[in-house]
Fold this protein.
Amino acid sequence: MKVIIDIDTCIGCGSCVMCEPKVFKMIEEDGVDHAIVIAQPNIDMEANVEDALSNCPVSAISID
Ligand code: F3S
């Protein structure tokens, strides 16, 4: 599983970080908050990443 965030689509809602903080992290760039992927998930994190994907309000998260 490889997780990708489209930072141009992300609106910084932060729910992905709540789902799996070992994979997603909020950062501020040019005054705009958005999430980044800080680590690819191991098998134990995959369910949380699936939750993050389905909960993102703008579908900014994808899995390759
Ligand atoms: Fe952004 Fe979606 Fe996470 S809007 S902060 S990628 S839940």
About this structure: DSSP finds two helices and four strands in the chain. Residues 10 and 50 are 16 Å apart (CA to CA). The two ends are 6 Å apart (CA to CA). The mean pLDDT is 97.
